[in-house]
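Milestone M4 deliverable, item 7.
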Amino acid sequence: MSDFMKWLYANYITPQINAASQEDYEAYFSLMENTLEPDLVATYKKTQEFTAIHAFLLGLRTGRGLPRE
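Output delivered:
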């Protein structure tokens, strides 16, 4: 994954996720944060980063009808 995508995640995607209403999912987020062992928290965060970046890219491709490459 490019450095730009990691920058985009940190500076655009994450603030958008944090600003979104989480009321319907708050219990699930709390459960994940409070029950994971410390060494799994980093793994969870990296998988969350990967999923969010690819969901963003999918939205770009399908939202504008752009080709994959």
